[in-house]
Design brief:
heterodimer; A: 829 residues; alpha+beta; nine-stranded mixed sheet; 18 strands; 59% helix; elongated; B: 357 residues; mainly beta; AttH-like fold; 13-stranded antiparallel sheet; ten-stranded antiparallel sheet; 25 strands; 2% helix; 54% strand; globular; disordered N terminus
């Protein structure tokens, strides 16, 4: 049997290589999409975890402050515990050297440090004494063009400092995932050189061998009380993972949808292949082959395709992930201030998942056929039309199923408002509904057409004849199109909402801030204040507070500026809000209000460095700057809550008629060397949108993938049709049809498939957009997005799909038109 | 004389030891500003124990970086060792911290605290040297290695300068010198703990106090130092600075008579021949274990023997820092006991010391 298998397969492949290639490709693409996303997901988290552990290593415990910074008493508490071996103070500084990011970890370098940071005895004092002494990775030093002993400038906030590259260290030797931006300084140096406020960001504790980690954590935590928490490395990574949760969820959801499309395609491709072999298999059964043998043949072929596809898809996925890791990195850095992902690591489990997906979906795809093959009656296999008939009968039932599913979804949607993953469930069921409804729709609509000649109408009508294959092609295209349209529409709506929001919030003429999210020092503030033509200036201060178990960002601004309209678009427009805030109330951003269930008029407790405070919520405003949520208070309130903290940015309102660009240039000139960014209103708006576009760049990749998969499905279907209908076509040729006409028929079929897929996909996409905007986004991010279909983008995509459908049909059409009349006498395929 | 600073010389000049230093006591028992290195060095015998307690104050820089509570221009280092002469077992503990309110510090006359440092890992009590009731008290514990000492001293003989007005030259170079005085006999009492048992002890200590900025000359790789308390009431301090080839580069010493009057010895006044060998597993260094010391002009021929061989201190905080510091017995013209310190032996000879000194 094995020899037969080999020979038969070889013959099949030789006869229609394109078919097999496409099938294998379909499997590969499905596998690749899953692998890519999982790799990106995994690496994003790993990069953050690695940066957390980079120099502190796997310290068993870390003390972190709940608010602000730790004071030296945390060190004392850590050192006093009987289980403590060492306790290290840690201060983290983010700086920029030119374009390069420096993630500086400052600690007590008189104490033995882990791993690679070993200085010979002769250099032991350097880090404490050489001004600006810093240890860099070899890569970073090379990028900065600095050799040991050389100096370079770095910027933090609005402060420019000179650093000396004291040592080059291979951090990756102990931590392969440590980003090359990691650098180490002595704590005194970092605090003095960067002018940091006193206090520590963390205290890293190493326990004695054999100590009970959890007990030590509990003891130390109790002494510290509420001002700090004691975490294990896993807990720290989890916190980071929490930060990224929404982001990763998005990616995972998208990958699952890609997977669904992939599985679909694999299924369709295999279906097509197996359909072709039905006759052959029927003959074998009639000749006495057992069911087991025949099933074995099918499984063999399926697994072979599955293996080839997986073998192709796995490396493809890794390559795609590598190529796209920059995009994701950029997003992570921008939004979450995390380390960039520099090197892709490929853990075994991702490979395993990819392989399982590839092989599993191949098997899944063959299931229907396998069921059929197990039938008693071998003759059923010989008649190609049985499958078609069964689908014809099933179609209305499937439609009923679709209708039921649809209504169930709607009901579920209303009922399960508060259950976060509801949105995903509904998205899946929407796609499922589309799939189930496809056969019936294709059948009915195609039958509506009364062809008048041997042209496009005929193409459409004949769709109903090869229903199984065609329905699958249409369905897979429909899913891909749904996803593409849905996401395009959501991103488009989001962008439109963001634009209009920018319009009502970004109102000042000039914005001044720092590149490293640091603070502006007094000299800079004075220079800004001296800008001529200013009618008002808004100063932003940033801090944080604890609300229950939650840490919230707190912004202090000059709420009522004379002559400046309100910059906070409120959910419920009401009078007196700004006055209330000026009087000590606060504004809460929409995402925070949703997540923490807050409403206007509520009184809340906030704990800050200055103590406990009770404030009233004056209003909820739309805010898209972060999904974490913010609270806004007036400057006076802020100083009362947080203390006199230096501002992070300043916005200037100029008098009417003053030339903004000239003022910007003048201010830049007056600020001279200060590493401060000055932007005009226009520039800031453009920057915000750039960041937005970059964030969603990743979705483009997935869209492209699904699109490819679906178009391949059309090509596949038509190719098979070309072969299967050979006799029919030969008949037409014999009756006088020209090759050109046959060619047109097939192209027409491709176009029809494309059109059907497009229409169904548009319906699915519309439903998907609503789910994405109203359910998923609200549940996970808390933003309000107003539906605003990006007409041009969608039209462009539609045109591309139709064009691609036509393109996909070209090769099959060519083959079909070449069918010679002699095919009439052949009755094997 | 013992180990000193381990850091590179700063561009700014440190104060050099000068012959015209104006001494004031007890004020000069405390730390001095402006000198790169300073140490307080106690060795002694009490009951069946021989002990060492040393605290170093190491200057890193003349100026302190403003703007950080962690800024420091000084490190504090402590070395403590205990030899159980009954069994020959030797234990060594060390600490090294920057001067910071939570970690280490040194005091200013007239406050009692002279210098202190956090204890080693697992030990909650700090190590400290204080001035109490007209004498020194020093305390150190290492809970993990299970030993501790808490000893108070009283001057039994007057303080002696180890050189004219305390200036002790270390080489031909003018600048190579320190300000050095000793308390050659200190009546000592207190407690020593070992493996959970506390022993109340009395005994005798020797204290060296030295400070300076430039303590090793050009090709010197290490030294041999002897502090011997003789039964006839005299004390002998000798040191020999060695070159890489083993030859003597500089040598000097002090013989203190019964009443505390010092006689300064030059190189030509004594000779030392060493023999025996003990090789350390930990450092690879090969130390002599027996010395013949002769001072012909004073009628002294002494045989000095290590009371236990394995009295080496190997630092883990500072790579390549190890030295032999051990209790010795004296027989010959007069009997006695004392301590010998051997530095700069072994494969890393001179590395650590040269850089710092």
């Amino acid at each position: 049997m094995v020899r037969y298998f080999a020979k038969a397969l070889a013959a099949m492949v030789a006869k229609s290589p394109v078919l097999y290639v496409l099938t294998v490709l379909g499997v590969a693409l499905g596998v690749a999409s899953v692998v890519t996303i999982q790799l990106i997901n995994d690496n994003a988290i790993a990069a953050f975890a690695a940066s957390v552990r980079a120099v502190t290593g796997d310290d068993e415990l870390t003390i972190v402050p709940t608010l602000g910074a730790l004071d030296d008493s945390a060190m004392r508490v850590a050192l006093a515990d009987a289980a403590t071996q060492t306790a290290r103070p840690i201060v983290r500084v983010d700086a920029l050297a030119g374009e390069e990011r420096l993630s500086i970890v400052a600690t007590d370098l008189t104490q033995p440090t882990r791993g690679p940071l070993e200085l010979g005895a002769e250099r032991a004092g350097d880090p404490l004494v050489t001004p600006g002494w810093i240890a860099l990775s070899h890569e970073l030093a090379a990028r900065l063009g600095v050799t040991p002993g050389g100096t370079f400038t770095a910027v933090n906030g609005s402060r420019r400092v000179v650093l000396t590259a004291g040592a080059l260290v291979d951090f990756k030797a102990t931590l392969p995932l440590a980003p090359s931006s990691i650098a180490v300084m002595d704590i005194a140096q970092a605090q003095a050189v960067f002018g940091l406020s006193p206090g520590l960001d963390e205290v890293a504790i190493d326990l004695l061998d054999g100590a009970d980690v959890l007990a030590a954590a509990a003891r130390i935590g109790e002494v510290l009380g509420e001002r700090a928490r004691v975490l294990t490395p896993d807990e720290r990574a989890e916190e980071a993972a929490g930060l990224l949760a929404a982001f990763r969820l998005n990616l995972t959801a998208l990958s699952l949808i890609s997977l669904a499309v992939g599985v679909f395609l694999i299924h369709g491709a295999l279906q097509a292949t197996l359909l072709r072999r039905r006759t052959e298999l029927g003959v074998l059964r009639a000749l006495g082959a057992t069911r087991r043998q025949v099933v074995g043949l099918v499984i063999g072929e399926v697994m072979l395709i599955g293996c080839l596809g997986t073998a192709l898809g796995l490396p493809l996925g890794v390559v795609a992930a590598r190529a796209n890791i920059d995009v994701v990195s950029g997003t992570l850095t921008n939004l979450y201030l995390l380390q960039t992902v520099e090197e892709l690591r490929v853990p075994v489990w991702v490979i395993a998942v990819g392989a399982a997906v590839g092989l599993g979906s191949a098997l899944l795809g063959a299931t229907l056929s396998l069921i059929e093959l197990r039938r008693e009656d071998a003759r059923a296999l010989l008649v190609v039309s049985t499958l078609q008939e069964s689908l014809l009968v099933l179609a209305p039932r499937l439609l009923v199923g679709a209708a039921l599913l649809g209504s169930a979804t709607a009901i579920f949607g209303v009922a399960a408002r508060s259950w976060a993953p509801a949105g995903f469930v509904i998205a899946v069921t929407i796609l499922a509904t589309v799939v189930l409804a496809t056969p019936w729709l294709v059948l009915r609509v195609s039958r509506l057409v009364r062809p008048r000649g041997f042209g496009f109408g005929y193409s459409m009508r004949s769709l109903g004849q090869k229903l199984a294959a065609n329905a699958f092609a249409v369905a897979s295209l429909a899913i891909a199109v749904s996803m593409m349209f849905g996401i395009t529409a959501m991103v488009g709506s989001f962008r439109a909402t963001l634009e209009s929001w920018i319009g009502s919030t970004v109102r000042a003429d000039i914005y001044v801030s720092t590149e490293t999210r640091g603070r502006l020092d007094d000299d800079v503030l004075r220079t800004i204040a001296a800008t001529p033509g200013t009618r008002a200036s808004d100063v932003l201060r940033k801090g944080e507070a604890r609300m229950g178990e939650r840490t919230v960002r707190l912004s202090g601004v000059n709420v009522s500026l004379p002559g400046v309209p309100s910059r906070w678009p409120l959910l419920h427009a009401e009078g007196g809000v700004l006055e209330a805030v000026a009087g000590g109330g606060l504004l809460v951003s929409e995402p925070l209000a949703r997540k923490a269930n807050l409403a206007r008029g509520e009184r809340i407790q906030l704990r800050t460095l200055t103590g406990e405070h009770e404030l009233t919520i004056a209003g909820v405003f739309y805010d898209y700057t972060t999904e974490q949520g913010t609270m806004v208070v007036d400057t006076a309130t802020f100083v009362r809550l947080v203390g006199p903290v230096a501002p992070s940015s300043v916005a200037l309102y100029l008098n009417h008629g003053v030339d903004i660009d000239a003022t910007v240039r003048d201010l830049q000139r007056r600020l001279g060397d200060s590493p401060v960014v000055v932007r005009s209103n226009q520039r800031l708006r453009a920057t915000i949108l750039d960041i937005f576009d970059q964030t969603f760049a990743i979705t483009v990749i997935l869209q492209a993938m699904s699109f490819l998969i679906a178009v391949a499905g059309i090509a596949l279907t038509l190719l098979i049709a070309a072969r299967e209908r050979a006799a029919e076509l030969a008949l037409y040729r014999a009756l006088g049809a020209t090759r050109c006409q046959v060619f047109r028929i097939f192209v027409g079929q491709g176009l029809s498939l494309g059109a059907f897929g497009l229409v169904l996909g548009a319906i699915g996409g519309a439903a998907l957009v609503m789910v994405l905007i109203l359910l998923i986004n609200r549940a996970y991010f808390g933003w309000t997005i107003r539906l605003a279909l990006p007409g041009w983008a969608l039209a462009e995509q539609a045109a591309t799909i139709l064009a691609a459908a036509v393109l996909a049909a070209l090769y099959p059409a060519m083959r079909a038109s070449r069918t010679p009349s002699q095919e009439l006498v052949r009755d094997d395929l | 004389m013992t180990i000193s600073s381990l850091v590179t010389v700063m561009a700014l000049a440190w104060t050099n030891a000068k012959a015209d230093y104006a001494w004031r006591f007890p004020e000069d028992h405390w730390g001095h500003h402006g000198y790169k290195t300073e140490w307080w060095y106690f060795t002694g015998h009490a009951g069946r124990f021989a002990y060492q307690f040393t605290m170093f104050k190491v200057g890193l820089s003349q100026t302190q970086l403003p703007g950080s509570r962690w800024s420091t221009e000084t490190l504090v280092m402590g070395h403590v060792a205990l030899t159980d002469l009954a069994s020959g077992e030797h234990r060594f503990a060390e600490v090294l911290q920057r001067v910071q309110p939570e970690l280490a510090g040194y005091g200013v006359y007239p406050e009692p605290l002279i210098i202190w440092c956090r204890g080693p890992a697992g030990t909650s009590e700090p190590w400290e040297l204080v001035w109490e009731d007209g004498g020194f008290t020093f305390r150190a514990r290492d809970s993990r290695q299970k030993f501790a000492m808490n000893l108070s001293t009283r001057e039994a003989k007057p303080l002696v300068f180890e050189g004219p007005n305390g200036l002790s030259k270390k080489g031909r170079d003018q600048a190579a010198a320190s300000l050095y005085y000793s308390q050659t006999r200190l009546a000592t009492h207190g407690s020593i703990e070992l493996d959970g048992t506390r022993y109340d002890v009395t005994g005798e200590s020797w204290m060296d106090k030295e400070f300076g900025s430039n303590l090793l000359g050009g090709d010197q790789v290490g030294w041999d130092w002897f502090s011997l308390q003789l039964e006839d009431g005299r004390e002998l301090m000798l040191y020999v600075l060695r070159r890489a080839d083993g030859g003597v580069d500089w040598a000097s010493g002090t013989l203190v008579d019964r009443h505390g009057a010092p006689t300064y010895l030059g190189r030509e006044d004594f000779s030392i021949t060493s023999s025996g060998a003990w090789v350390s597993q930990a450092s690879g260094a090969r130390y002599p274990t027996h010395w013949k010391v002769s001072l012909p002009a004073h009628g002294l021929i002494l045989e000095v023997d290590a009371e236990a061989r394995a009295q080496e201190n190997v630092s883990r905080a500072i790579p390549a820092l190890y030295y032999w510091e051990g209790a010795v017995k004296v027989v010959g013209s007069v009997s006695g006991r004392g301590f010998v310190e051997l530095t700069g032996y072994g494969p890393h000879a001179g590395q650590v010391l040269r850089v710092g000194l």
